[in-house]
Amino acid sequence: MHRVLRPLFTLFVVLLLAGGALLVGAQLVALVLGRGEWLGTVSDAVGPPTFVAASIAGLLAFVMSYAPARHEAPVGAGAALDD
Question: TM spans, by residue (predicted)?
Answer without folding.
Answer: 50-67
